[in-house]
Design goal:
With 933 residues, the chain is mainly alpha-helical. The chain is 59% helix and 5% strand. It has an eight-stranded mixed β-sheet with strand order 4-3-5-1-6-7-2-8, sandwiched between helices. Strand 3 (134-139), helix 7 (144-150) and strand 4 form a beta-alpha-beta unit. Belongs to the PIGG/PIGN/PIGO family. PIGN subfamily.
């Protein structure tokens, strides 16, 4: 098989393995075809006002000032006198879109749907807005349109400000909230003179939605403890008070309006959200008005041991916590509209101030609504599964469903409302468990198929390595071996059986891919079985103890990398162990200076995983220091190589220009953040410099010499300049330290080759990336090459997690991109943050490319070992998913699997980019073009 064919096949296989996780774990939870369920009794409210203060933390609203006063006196008064309060618990990812979907539609949007669109609906879903008679919305253009588009008919009206107004450099982001309150005021004033609008407003089952983005914007820009964030809470409180007065005045104080005040997510102290920290998942909930209990004073202790009641001075008032999805059935119950058909929320009865009959009927409606989803999911699964293979959910069979419903109706008729409510809650609980059961029904089957394919692919790559890159004794009969016709026929029969089985079950198209992929993979493995014979015959001549030692060390190393995904500090342990490698291998006696440099480089790099993740403690002065360190490191590179490879005038001019550019880029973040702090906006010159630097970062190195260290230095300077512009603190020091260690790694590998007795070793100063490689000098793999490959994987993981860069993507913090733009744009901002993560990758990849050239190996040989190591890690995470019980732990393991698979696919593609960067040749692999037999 040619290398290009192998590359494309390997890329396809890994993309399939990557996508499989979405069919196994991230499929949409929605089912369609259910009948909307509503309570037949008259609702307590004719209209509902929903106010969502985006990014508002629970403690920020409920905590009092040191003098005992509240920063939100109106809402505090509601809590103490007229309403019911609690904490709404959100789920990961704590972002605006899934938060609003949970609030208004009552279900937790799956990750794949979140990734498909921000303003558009990737899936159709029902919501309280859709079930209402009319809904009027004011707020952000990022949130409102998705509910208007998802609604049937034309009864959801949205009023949004321009997207350009969402500017983190704004002098006062609270003006976004002021705009909303002003628009609501104008709306009700104009309604008094507009007869048709007034008639619509006086109808029942209406909803008014106020989306307030100012708090979130100020939190990102200034942090939640800032004066801007806290004052914005006071502005919202005042605005809510005035809005309530306007609404009550318009409707003549008829007592038929219900109010819900909450938030979609919280925010960390460093101004980000997206993860599962309590500051992100705990949001306030205050409900008052028609049909809602007034403040309930309690004397006994409440069932909450988090200490918040005492901190907030609210221990004397009943606290009612809910899951975020529970708010949707609460709102539907208050105004008498059907609960959204896909809602998984449970009606929080303690908020309702109504008769026991109304509560029992509402809970019964909630139970039937959830049961309808269960029944539809069960029917769908039953229709696509052979009858003798179908295993129903035993706790809620059809007979038990009928029993539950009948018993609940009897209890309500007998006026045993407490018992009826308890029974309905039990039915909801079982229905939700059954939904999960059928939602994950095919998980084990698909997981086995993927694992089978994964093991087969890894086995095939190992056999390819042994066959083409290892010095095995070739058996003459094996070399002439042809594929067995019996094996081919067997594989065809298996393919037909699997296809027929999937056709009968009417499985989705993707199931065919996951289930059929292992067949050709294992066919290729079995076809190469002769290589195992060669290995067995060569066993007596192999250093078995050394092979076993390498196997144990690599197994330990892979386990250490897997654990480092959960605990970043394990990278520190790994780097500390790597630092003593020259002393254990005997290299110290032959290259003391390089060994000490390696030792110090590993120790300095090991400090970064112990530091807080990106964005927590911004310190722009460290960015300037990183720029100075970059210039110092560059001068050291030039000084160390000037005697052996003198610089041409053009190269000298380019390096001086690049170093001056780095100095400018080290100063731009300081100037930008100073301007933003003074509320003067983003300077245009800084923005031009930033985007120009980004655009030229991959092109400028191609202008430099292709001599090894000259090209690497140009790449390092170009990428570091961009990295400085995307940094806010200590992470800016990471590329210079990493590059120093990579420079030492290249040098010390030369000494390792000398220690191995490799003949024809080329001096580093004479290596040119663009030179043709003599095929006669390309050597076979040795055991030490396994170490080189492991070092590469370890440094790639360190580049990814070393500064906690992933946290800046998972927990959205726009501070890193302020040099480029300040107007909210999730896709551009996310892309810039992703590029920041990629930059250390490229530095390590270019180093690995250099080591392949310097150690006289073909590009594919070491990369195949890297492929095996990364695949073993991914397989490890795939198995870990099966061992965890809680949703969050499963999600964590799945995310790590996705990261490893993404990294593997990315490395395969990035190898092309780095080769172009180093050699300027637009080909996939270095010459000569070797072929697999």
């Amino acid at each position: 098989m040619r290398m290009i064919t192998f590359f494309l096949v390997g890329l396809t296989v890994h993309v399939i393995f990557f996508l499989s996780i979405f069919d196994i774990y991230f499929t949409s939870p929605l089912v369609h075809g259910m009948t909307p369920q509503a309570t037949s009794l008259a609702p307590p409210a004719s209209r509902l006002v929903l106010v969502v203060a985006d990014g508002l933390r629970a403690d920020s609203l409920f905590t009092l000032h040191p003098d005992g006063s509240s920063r939100a006196p109106y809402l505090r008064g509601v809590i103490e006198e007229r309403g019911t309060w609690g904490v709404s618990h959100t789920r990961v990812p704590t972002e605006s879109r899934p938060g609003h979907v949970a609030l208004i539609a009552g279900f937790y949007e799956d990750v794949s749907a979140v990734a498909k669109g921000w303003k558009e609906n990737p899936v159709e879903f029902d919501s309280v807005f859709n079930e209402s008679r009319h809904t009027w919305c004011w707020g952000s253009p990022d949130i409102l349109p998705m509910f208007a588009k998802g609604a049937s008919g034309d009864h959801v009206y949205t009023y949004t400000y321009p997207a350009e107004e969402e500017d983190f450099a704004s002098t006062d982001a609270s003006r976004l909230d002021s705009w909303v309150f002003s628009q609501v005021k104008s709306f009700f004033q104009s309604a008094k003179s507009n007869s048709s609008l007034k008639a619509s407003l006086l109808e029942d089952k209406n909803v008014f939605f106020l989306h307030l983005l100012g708090i979130d914007t100020n939190g990102h820009a200034h942090r939640p403890m800032s004066q801007e964030y806290l004052e914005n809470i006071g502005l919202v409180d005042t605005g809510v008070a005035e809005m309530v007065s306007q609404v009550e005045d318009f409707f003549g104080y008829d007592g038929r309006t219900a109010y819900v005040f909450t938030s979609d997510h919280g925010m960390t102290n460093w101004g980000s959200h997206g993860a599962g920290h309590p500051s992100e998942t705990l949001t306030p909930l205050v409900v008052w008005g028609a049909g809602v209990h007034s403040a309930q004073r309690v004397t006994e202790s409440q069932p909450y041991d988090d200490g918040y009641l005492q901190d907030w001075k609210l221990e004397h008032l009943r606290r009612v916590d809910v899951s975020q999805a529970d708010i949707a059935p609460l709102m539907a119950s208050l105004i008498g509209v059907p609960i959204p058909v896909n809602s998984v929320g449970v009606l929080p009865l303690l908020y309702l101030n109504n008769s026991d009959l109304f509560k029992a009927e509402s809970m019964y409606t909630n139970a039937i609504q959830v049961l309808e989803q269960f029944k539809m999911k069960m029917t769908q699964k039953k229709e696509t599964t052979l009858s003798f293979l179908f295993t129903p959910y035993q706790l809620l069979t059809e007979s038990k469903q009928a029993e539950f419903i009948h018993k609940a109706r009897i209890l309500i008729q007998l006026e045993k409302y407490e018992d009826a409510i308890s029974l309905c809650q039990s039915l909801i609980s079982r229905s939700l468990e059954g939904l999960v059961y059928y939602h994950t029904y095919d998980r084990f089957f698909l997981g086995c198929s993927v694992v089978l394919g994964f093991v087969g692919w890894t086995s095939y790559v190992v056999l390819v390595i042994l066959k083409t890159h290892a010095s095995l004794n070739r058996h003459p009969s094996v070399l002439k071996q042809t594929p067995s016709h019996t094996l081919a026929r067997l594989c065809m029969c298996v393919t037909v059986v699997i296809t027929v089985f999937l056709l009968i079950q009417r499985s989705p198209a993707t199931y065919y891919i996951y289930c059929l992929l292992p067949v050709p993979v294992w066919y290729s493995v079995l076809k190469e079985s002769g290589t195992l014979t060669d290995l067995i015959q060569s066993a007596p001549s192999l250093p078995l103890w050394k092979c076993f030692g390498y196997f144990v060390l690599v197994a330990f190393g892979i386990e250490l990398l897997v654990v480092s995904f959960f605990y970043r500090a394990m990278l520190t342990v790994g780097l500390t162990l790597l630092s003593i490698w020259p002393f254990l291998s005997g290299l110290f006696g032959k290259a003391k200076f390089r060994s000490l440099s390696w030792f110090l480089g590993c120790l300095f790099l090991s400090l970064f995983p112990l530091m807080p993740v990106v964005g927590r403690e911004p310190d722009i002065h460290l960015v300037t220091c990183a720029g100075l360190l970059t210039l110092f490191t560059s001068l050291c590179y030039l000084w160390s190589s000037r005697q052996r490879t003198p610089l041409h005038l053009s190269d000298r001019q380019q390096f001086v220009t690049q170093m001056l550019h780095v100095a400018v880029c080290a100063y731009v973040p300081s100037l930008t953040h100073s301007s933003l702090q003074q509320k003067q906006g983003l300077p245009l010159v800084n923005q031009i410099i930033s985007w120009t630097t980004l655009g030229s970062s991959m092109l400028v190195p191609l202008l430099s010499s292709t001599r090894l260290f000259h090209r690497l230095l140009s790449i390092f300077l170009s990428l570091t300049a961009t990295y400085l512009l995307l940094s806010t603190g200590s992470e800016a020091l990471f590329p210079p330290v990493l590059s120093w260690l990579m420079f030492v790694w290249i040098n010390i590998e030369q000494e390792a080759m000398l220690a191995q007795g490799v003949s024809g070793r080329q001096e580093l100063s004479t290596i040119d990336f663009s030179a043709n490689i003599d095929i006669a000098k390309i050597r076979q793999l040795k055991l030490d090459d396994i170490r080189r490959s492991y070092f590469f994987v370890f440094f790639i993981i360190t580049a990814f997690f070393g500064t906690g860069n992933i946290a800046s993507i998972n927990s959205f913090d726009p501070a890193s991109v302020y040099c480029f733009l300040t107007v909210f744009n999730p896709f551009i901002m996310g892309g810039l943050m992703m590029w920041k993560v990629i930059i250390p990758f490229i530095i390590v990849m270019c180093t690995f490319e250099t080591i392949q050239v310097a150690t006289q190996l073909s590009s594919r040989s070491l990369f195949l070992i890297v492929l095996v190591i990364s695949d073993l890690m991914a397989l490890h995470f795939f198995f870990l998913v099966q061992d965890y019980g809680s949703w969050l732990d499963i999600g964590t393991s799945i995310s790590h699997y996705v990261i490893v698979m993404s990294m593997t696919i990315f490395l395969m593609l990035l190898s092309v980019v780095t080769h172009i960067l180093t050699s300027q040749r637009l080909i996939l692999w270095r010459r000569p073009k070797l072929h697999f037999p």
